[in-house]
Amino acid sequence: NTGALWGGRFADGPSPALAALSRSTHFDWRLAPYDLAGSKAHARVLHRAGLLTDDDVAGLLAGLDALTAKVASGEVVADESDEDVHGALERLLLDEVGAELGGRLRAGRSRNDQIATLFKVFLRDHARVVAGHVLDLVDALTDQAEAHLGAVMPGRTHLQHAQPVLLSHHLMAHAWPLVRDLARLRDWDARVAADSPYGSGALAGSSLGLDPEEVARDLGFTGSSANSIDGTAARDFVAEFAFVTAMVGVDVSRLAEEVILWATKEFDFVRLHDGYSTGSSIMPQKKNPDIAELARGKAGRVIGNLTGLLATLKALPLAYNRDLQEDKEPVFDSVDTLEVLLPAFTGMVATLTFNTARMADLAPQGFSLATDVAEWLVRQGVPFRVAHEVAGECVQRCEELGVELDGLTDEQFAAISPHLTPEVRSVLTVEGSVASRNGRGGTAPGRVREQLTELRDVVADH
Ligand code: ARG
């Protein structure tokens, strides 16, 4: 016997090369507290099934508590001889309570149902942490939106001036996707909570009369797996988590890209707070948007974690395969990445100073009121096809004259079309333009205030 969890049928121990390949303690040791919690639940269920005496279960629970404390303090760690966190903890439990008692705990469970369960508990914990950080970012965006009600900016499509919008409207357009990410995390959590794999054993379930529902409740789940093969083999919960975290990365990266542009000399829309920007080692004048750039870069990384994981899963036969050991590092990385990125990013957003004068100045430029001219003509009874043509001619004339739309004289308007009476000037202001877009979801100030309330209400739910 080699001392490993599975030594009985082997005459020789693992070669050093196999051990080096097989070992996962350098990344799965962080699951130790979760494995210990699972072991406590398992000890209780063995006791209820009559497989442990009252003394046995008391001794095991005390030993597991003592071990939990030692793991937390760092007094015990995995060593070279341990294949994975489960093996390490069994070795340490035997040290704690003796081989006779410690050797009873493994009955009726497998590392396959263990890992599937405790990985879910780990991810559920971190889903809450990530959601808290996302919520903080949504709050920062909402606060900035509220602080700038009334400020206007050039709205863009294709990165070209399109129509003026309220800055608050634009900022909240970044908040809503994050709110949907929060909802995704919540939906994910409910699905995962209903499906505790403990009791699935290696793949076929347990012959020892253990009740998976009891373990599930003990570990904070609402139910246990309906199918033990599925319970041990499925990793869609990991992939879905990796997707949601990748989506958060992408949503943050879209805003990051705008902050980077906005902070350029050419845009000059925002100033970054000193505490949330960096300098150059050679160019004394530099103030760089490194947080936004790191956000953009790390989005690539969390996307990679998702795609790598999906590739690992795509052709696996049922049930457990060792390939599944590769499911952890990608999502550990996504969790660690977001947990360090989001607080910095939120700080950057919360401390942005907007150059609202500059934004207001640019809002009507680039003929961004041309749609307003066309829609004004429609309200005068002109078919939109004609109105679009006429407004387009106005733009052409402006380009020739080097003026914006409000720079045309009454005579110049009239020469383009008799429909263009001087009253058209009523829509040739940014204020008039945004105020006119007053349907639900539009950029009119009243609608944007209403939207702010709606956003705060939705967020209060999370
Ligand atoms: N360390 C493995 C994992 O992360 C769990 C162990 C299952 N090993 C096995 N030979 N069945 O998936």
UniProtKB/TrEMBL annotation:
Start and end residues of each Fumarate lyase N-terminal domain: 8-304
Keyword entries, A-Z: Amino-acid biosynthesis, Arginine biosynthesis, Cytoplasm, Lyase
UniProt GO BP: L-arginine biosynthetic process via ornithine
Argininosuccinate lyase C-terminal domain residues: 367-435
Top EC class, one word: lyase
Pfam family name, one: ASL_C2
GO MF terms held by the record: argininosuccinate lyase activity
GO CC terms: cytosol
Pathway named in the protein's UniProt entry: Amino-acid biosynthesis; L-arginine biosynthesis; L-arginine from L-ornithine and carbamoyl phosphate: step 3/3
Coarse class of the protein's main subcellular location: cytoplasm
Catalytic activities: 2-(N(omega)-L-arginino)succinate = fumarate + L-arginine
Subcellular compartments: Cytoplasm
Alphabetized SUPFAM superfamilies for the sequence: L-aspartase-like (SSF48557)
EC numbers, comma separated: 4.3.2.1
NCBIfam families named in the record: argH
Family according to the record: Belongs to the lyase 1 family. Argininosuccinate lyase subfamily.
Identification of the protein by name: Argininosuccinate lyase
Organism: Nocardioides iriomotensis
Gene designation: argH
